[in-house]
Specification:
heterodimer; A: mainly beta; Immunoglobulin-like; 2 domains; eight-stranded mixed beta sheet; 1 helix; 14% helix; B: mainly beta; six-stranded mixed beta sheet; 13 strands; elongated; membrane (chain A); transmembrane (chain A); transmembrane helix (chain A); Immunoprotect_excell_Ig-like (chain B); signal (chain B)
């Protein structure tokens, strides 16, 4: 009696181990890549969004053909501009905001945007804890690039770790796609744009 | 045999407990290599490893006026400008003092502003032994981060195990609401230029 139960138990364990090993190998070989991907959620464009170390609220987006907020453009280029109110949620001054916004589906000649403080056109200043500032993200585009009337911007957030695994120091890690905001893109004529001073 | 097995288990358990206790209680890498604070008060000379610093004056202003490349710029802020005047000397060899941080009462750290272009009286300050000079540190701070704040001055921004002067700003007069007693509508950085080097 006891011996039968024991052998049955062993059978179950053996069969289970085989299944787990099969699933593991299938996972390693990428069998689950065919599952429908989790689309990042649409975020409301008119609300403040907590994205890791930044609280962001997009204000407006437009295409400019002239110099905008002191960011120079090469001849024949135009610029996609996104203005957003940014608040530093951390405890110290920081300027790690380059990857927070990224336009979807556009060919960008240089990957990272130029970012200016709209208050006085300072390029990439540090933002201080709790002090909201309006920043302009400027992506130079080829002059004949087609920008859709409604463009979605991906928002990337990081998570805080009090101790990282290498040095045990606090920091922000693991950038993930938090969601997307879709904004109408105005097409500004050359001379209607303020200098933002 | 059985006693030996129990003994081994006990030793294992004790080791696990000891290791866990040490992991929880011992300081971590970031704390072990943090800058070494040297405390002081306003108007006292604080002796850091490579420089001496004395905090002379703190002025608060709504806007900041500066001449830059022949143009006058008026800088606004969503908080207040805090212009801190310090007196700096090197201890033994010529060096620079480059890092200033305004630390609020709750520990929020406001790094010196990057919105002013290079000026001779702004960091990095070149200091020499035996020669006193005035050095400015300019911060943007919210009004509620002024009472109980302190000024952190270090030779470099990332300076593990180097000295960091930590000067308490308790002597800054503030009103009942925590706001500074006097806020200038505008501070002209060029009008009040003190002689940079050799003032004693």
């Amino acid at each position: 009696m006891f011996k039968t139960a024991r052998s049955r138990f062993q059978t179950w364990i053996t069969a289970g181990a085989g299944t787990i090993a099969a699933l593991f190998v299938a996972g390693l070989m990428g069998a689950f890549g065919a599952l429908p991907a989790h689309a990042p959620p649409q975020l409301p464009p008119d609300a403040a969004i907590d994205a890791g170390r930044w609280r962001v609220q997009s204000v407006r987006a437009y295409v400019s053909r002239a110099k905008v907020y002191g960011v120079p453009l090469k001849p024949g280029q135009k610029a996609l501009v996104l203005e957003a109110d940014m608040t530093n949620r951390t405890a110290q001054s920081d300027k790690a905001y380059f990857n927070v916004f990224a336009p979807d589906g556009l060919a960008l000649p240089d990957g990272l945007p130029m970012i200016a403080l709209t208050r006085d056109q300072t390029l990439t200043p540090e933002l201080h804890p709790g002090m909201t500032e309006r920043m302009a993200y400027v992506w130079p585009l080829a002059g004949d690039a087609i920008v859709p009337a409604n463009l979605s911007f991906g928002i990337t957030a990081e998570i805080f770790k009090p101790r990282d695994n290498l040095y045990g120091t606090p920091g922000w890690f693991n950038p993930t796609r938090l969601g997307t905001v879709t904004l109408p893109i105005a097409d500004l004529p050359t001379d209607s744009l303020g200098t933002g001073s | 045999m059985k006693i030996r097995a129990i003994g081994n288990l006990l030793i294992l358990a004790a080791t696990v407990a000891l290791s866990y206790g040490m992991q929880v209680s011992k300081p971590h890498y970031a704390e072990l290599t943090a800058p070494i604070p040297i405390d002081g008060a306003m108007h006292d000379t604080v002796r850091a490893r490579s420089f001496d610093v004395r905090l002379d004056k703190v002025v608060f202003a709504r806007t900041l006026k500066t001449d830059q490349f022949g143009q006058t710029r008026v800088l606004t802020t969503s908080g207040l400008w805090a212009v801190v005047t310090t007196n700096l000397t090197a201890t033994s060899t010529s060096t620079t003092v480059a890092d200033g941080t305004w630390q609020g009462r709750t520990g929020l750290r406001y790094h010196q502003t990057e919105r002013l272009s290079y000026r001779q009286d702004m960091p990095p300050h070149a200091v020499d032994p035996g020669l006193e000079r005035n050095g400015l540190f300019v911060f943007e701070v919210p009004p509620d981060q002024i009472r109980g704040a302190s000024l952190l001055v270090a030779a470099r921004q990332f300076a593990p195990l180097d000295a960091q002067a930590r000067i308490s700003l308790d002597a800054v007069p503030t009103g009942a609401d925590g706001q500074p007693a006097e806020i200038l509508p505008q501070y002209d950085l060029d009008a009040a230029v003190p002689s940079v080097q050799g003032k004693s």
